[in-house]
Design a protein that fits this description.
Elements: H1 13-26, E1 27-29, H2 30-39, E2 45-48, H3 52-57, E3 64-65, H4 73-76, E4 85-88, H5 96-106, E5 111-115, H6 117-123
Length: about 130
């Protein structure tokens, strides 16, 4: 019996390993970001790429607000070239985090996207901070 799940065979295990391992080079999730921030040794800069108004209304504690349209070489010069950035936006219905990640990658900066954004953060039961930093 064929259905939408079985219509295409699963990838060979070696191909699946390569695919899923590569995905972790591009993204992380809210739980892992939370754990890294809580450790006090995150090893990355967390960028909230939404508007300042949305950031002030609620953001991931420890995040810096830098709207994706304002990611420039001049602005990023504040950090060493090897600094890893993690971007996030509102959530799966928003492509702001991907736009921010693309801007950073175009500047030659290491970057990952935090999947889920604010929606994922709240879904995990984590609190938001309010106000400007």
């Amino acid at each position: 019996m064929t259905n939408a799940v079985t219509e295409y065979p699963a990838a060979l295990p070696a191909d699946a390993v390569a695919h899923f391992a590569q995905a972790f080079a591009f993204e992380t999730d809210c739980w892992d970001v939370h754990a890294a921030l809580a450790s006090g040794k995150a090893g990355f800069v967390l960028l909230d790429v939404r508007s300042p108004d949305l950031f002030t209304a609620g953001h991931v504690p420890g995040a810096i607000n830098l709207p994706h349209g304002k990611i420039t070489a001049r602005r990023m010069a504040e950090w060493p070239a090897e600094t890893l950035f993690v971007t996030y936006c509102a959530g799966p219905h928003c492509n702001g985090a991907a736009r921010g990640a693309l801007a950073l990658a175009r500047l030659g900066r290491p970057v990952k996207l935090m999947t889920g954004g604010i929606c994922g953060w709240l879904d995990e039961g984590f609190n938001l901070a309010e106000g400007a930093p």
